[in-house]
């Protein structure tokens, strides 16, 4: 089957605001509460109008997903795989139009939107097309039972079988409007679940495009539903809806706590990817060029709007001064500005409100006595857009707000340490535990230190990710694990089958 082109109207519409409708039960539905504006963070112009779903419409989307679950959960794995594969084909075939949309609504640079948003989304649909075919049964050793009150002696066989959870509310983050939703939708569908997707309010238009691709790929009506809103109401309605069996959320720890409280009332299953304040431990024998390149991604990658960023640099005193100097030089070389220009590295932050928030942290760092080595100001060019120059603070202490709180912007803080014990203690002095990093020329020491860090992942001499490795956080950085086959486990329940041998 050759997928039909989806985006002729989308490509044309980028010249003027795009008006979306809710996607419920396979139909485009006018919102009860009107529309709100989606703003381009680089130009401050309106990209499109996103629908404001009422509480009743969110519940209608969940009801449609519940109705569709009865059939979708019983489809053959090969059929689910074929839908996901075709969706990947469609996304790849229209990648340039989707890239332009992602740049316009998220402010990501063109290279980032193309390679790390749209391409990763297609790859995730492709990965979970294969995932739909992974075995769901695990045979267990037979158990010999002696005669007793439960009956005669015998041998009992058993299987542990993964079953779909049901209706999953996927509440996604604004920093990656393609890869993050795809990372939830694809494994959920592969396991036979149906979904209600509530995108971040800042950049929801890409998710509607993704839903259309899935529908064109053959996802039956109600299997994928999309609802949006400019505030918290739509997400709250999805979380507390009786027809929703599981909530998969990516976002702040504060919001995650509130979702967890609501889910706890009815024992809804949860997958939570929450905040981070990643520590980068740089030892005296580290390759400083490699460390600077890795830490420097905080300044550029999504303009620091990424929970896995190494934002706390904990450097051995022997290399502290050189590392600060090199990081400052690295930050000063990065071009900030129009994300559509090929040499731009640092795009805008997602909104004026978030730019103001990041600037307030820069001011807080100054007042608390940290030394601002580079950046932190609004660049003189371009004149429009929500830009903040990458900021580097040195001479920090553990009690400062810029050290303790997730800023979610291009801000790096540097603290010194004397020995391994102090480095591990400083790294662990946080409520977060998503991903930390260790740079050292002594591989044995690097892995020893990694084993002592209370975080869901540790990069040893790299900020790279293995996309089959489990992803999730310790402490208040989340609940559960996804990515690779671990995502299939996350979107399933275990059922035990026992029989007499």
UniProtKB/TrEMBL annotation:
Q: Does the keyword Membrane apply?
A: no
| Gene3D superfamilies the UniProt entry points to | Aldehyde Dehydrogenase, Chain A, domain 1, Aldehyde Dehydrogenase, Chain A, domain 2
Ranges for domain Aldehyde dehydrogenase: 35-495
Q: Which Pfam families match?
A: Aldedh (PF00171)
Q: Where is the signal peptide?
A: none
> Which InterPro entries is this protein grouped with?
Ald_DH/histidinol_DH, Ald_DH_C, Ald_DH_N, Aldehyde_DH_dom
* Keyword entries, A-Z: Oxidoreductase
Point out the coiled-coil segments of this chain: none
Q: Which PANTHER family match?
A: ALDEHYDE DEHYDROGENASE-RELATED
**Protein known as:** Aldehyde dehydrogenase family protein
Organism from which the protein derives: Streptomyces chengmaiensis
């Amino acid at each position: 089957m050759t997928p039909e082109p989806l985006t002729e109207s989308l490509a044309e519409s980028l010249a003027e605001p795009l008006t979306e409708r809710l996607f419920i039960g396979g139909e485009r539905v006018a919102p009860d509460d009107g529309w709100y504006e989606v703003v381009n963070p680089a130009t401050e112009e309106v990209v499109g109008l996103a629908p404001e779903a009422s509480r009743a419409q969110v519940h209608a989307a969940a009801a449609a997903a519940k109705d569709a679950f009865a059939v979708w959960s019983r489809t053959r794995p090969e059929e689910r795989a074929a839908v996901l594969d075709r969706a990947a084909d469609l996304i790849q075939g229209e990648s340039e139009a989707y890239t332009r949309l992602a740049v316009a609504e998220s402010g990501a640079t063109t290279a980032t939107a193309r390679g790390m948003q749209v391409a990763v989304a297609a790859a995730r649909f492709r990965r979970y097309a294969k995932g739909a075919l992974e075995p769901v049964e695990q045979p267990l050793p037979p158990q010999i039972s002696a005669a007793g009150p439960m009956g005669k002696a015998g041998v009992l066989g058993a299987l542990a079988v993964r079953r779909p959870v049901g209706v999953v509310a996927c509440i996604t983050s604004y920093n990656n409007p393609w890869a993050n939703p795809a990372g939830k939708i694809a494994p959920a569908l592969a396991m036979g679940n149906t979904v209600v997707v509530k995108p971040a309010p800042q950049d929801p238009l890409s998710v509607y495009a993704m839903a259309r691709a899935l529908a064109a790929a053959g996802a039956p009506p109600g299997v994928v539903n999309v609802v949006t809103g400019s505030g918290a109401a739509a997400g709250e309605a999805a979380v507390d809806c009786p027809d929703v069996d599981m909530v998969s959320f990516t976002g702040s720890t504060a919001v995650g706590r509130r979702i967890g409280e609501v889910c706890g009332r009815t024992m809804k299953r949860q997958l939570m990817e929450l905040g981070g304040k990643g520590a980068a431990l740089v030892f005296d024998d580290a390759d400083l060029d490699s460390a600077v390149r890795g830490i420097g991604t905080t300044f550029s990658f999504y303009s620091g709007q990424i929970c896995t960023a190494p934002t706390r640099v904990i450097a051995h005193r022997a290399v502290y001064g050189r590392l600060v100097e090199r990081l400052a030089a690295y930050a000063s070389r990065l071009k900030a500005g129009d994300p559509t220009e090929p040499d731009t590295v640092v795009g805008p932050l997602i909104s004026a409100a978030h730019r103001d928030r990041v600037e307030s942290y820069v001011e807080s760092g100054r007042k608390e006595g940290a030394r601002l080595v580079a950046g932190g100001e609004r660049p003189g060019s371009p004149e429009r857009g929500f830009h903040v120059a990458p900021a580097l603070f040195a001479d920090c202490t553990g009690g400062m707000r810029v050290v303790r709180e997730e800023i979610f912007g291009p801000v790096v803080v540097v603290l010194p340490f004397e020995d391994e014990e102090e480095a591990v203690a400083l790294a662990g002095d946080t409520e977060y535990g998503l991903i930390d990093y260790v740079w050292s020329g002594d591989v044995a020491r690097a892995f020893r230190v990694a084993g002592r860090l209370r975080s869901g992942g540790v990069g040893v001499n790299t900020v790279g990710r293995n996309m089959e490795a489990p992803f999730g956080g310790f402490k208040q950085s989340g609940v559960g694990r996804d990515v690779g086959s671990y995502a299939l486990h996350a979107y399933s329940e275990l059922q035990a089958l026992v029989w007499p041998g």
